[in-house]
Amino acid sequence: MAVKKGDYVTRISYNNDTIFKVINIHNNVCYLKGIEVRLYADSPEDDLKVVENVEFEPLDEIDIKDKLLNRNEYFYLPAKILHIDGDESYLSRCLKFYKKNGVLAIGKKIKENHIYEQIKGLLREFKPDIVVITGHDAYFAKKGNIQDLGNYKNSENFVKAVKVARSLEKSHEKLVIIAGACQSNYEELIKAGANFASSPKRVNIHALDPAIIACTIALTDRSTQIDLVDLLNKTKYKEEGMGGIICNGLMYVGYPR
């Protein structure tokens, strides 16, 4: 079966482990974008298998608010999120997830290499409690040293953005930063000032992983410490894909309703 632009496919040489959408074809090379994971790839056409029926994973269906909020006489003021994403379709998916869970989120689509230039102005304008800095990334193992930021597609850009954000607000409790994408340099992002980052084991992450973490913090009482292991277990690849530091939630709770 000939592969066409717009088809959903998997790569035979990777044991058909990830579903992609074909976004372009040039000189018999197919350019691919992950449906669930934040990943771009390319492949010869003969290594692709067309997938007829594509189903989204149940992460979209996670209802965080109903698990965290006790519907009694109290009222809730969840934290505000600024979500900056290098990918428009993933951004749209995350914004739908925030809306479903009743969290106010402002979304901005900005190319990864320009986020650090614009983030300070956005933080001053919107004054969020949580900022997500994500998009696409990759670790180029053939280049060598896993700690060298030069061996990543966008980790250096994410690190620069985190440093700018943290220079504006030093406290990890007043501004929670969630940063990174597939295979990002986790250690450097944490050292730069992120509360949470990808990817400890340099694996791909789900498109919604940063949003799941942001949403959980936004809907957790300020007096309640986050259960870090439980939080990471909500994400697709758990502690292999996302990691971070223990912090409190950022939601205000009031009485009476």
Number of domains: 2
Strand content: 15-25%
Radius of gyration: 19 Å
- Morphology call: globular
User: What is CATH's topology name of the largest domain?
Assistant: Rossmann fold
Helices, by number, come to 7
Query: Whole-number average pLDDT?
Result: 93
Let me know the CATH homologous superfamily of the largest domain: Cobalamin-binding domain
Number of strand elements: 13
One letter per element, helices H and strands E, the order comes to: EEEEEHEEHEHEHEHEHHEE
Structural class: alpha/beta
What's the helical proportion of residues? Answer: 25-40%
Query: Which residues sit in consecutive blocks of at least 5 with pLDDT less than 50?
Result: none
Model description:
The protein is α/β, with parallel strands linked by helices and 257 residues long. It has two domains: 8-50; 58-254, Rossmann fold, CATH 3.40.50. Helices cover 26% and strands 21% of the residues. It has a six-stranded mixed beta sheet with strand order 8-7-9-10-11-12, sandwiched between helices. The longest helix is centred in the middle third of the chain and has 14 residues, at 155-168. The mean pLDDT is 93.
Quickly describe the structure.
The chain folds into two domains: 8-50; 58-254, Rossmann fold.
Q: Which features does this protein show?
A:
257 residues, 6-stranded mixed sheet, alpha/beta, 5-stranded antiparallel sheet, single chain, 2 domains, Rossmann fold
Topology:
Blueprint: E1 8-11, E2 20-26, E3 29-34, E4 40-44, E5 48-50, H1 64-68, E6 75-77, E7 81-85, H2 88-100, E8 105-109, H3 115-126, E9 130-134, H4 155-168, E10 176-179, H5 186-192, E11 196-197, H6 209-218, H7 228-233, E12 243-244, E13 252-254
Parallel strand pairs: 7-8, 7-9, 9-10, 10-11
Antiparallel strand pairs: 1-2, 1-5, 2-3, 3-4, 6-13, 11-12
Helix pairs in contact: 3-4
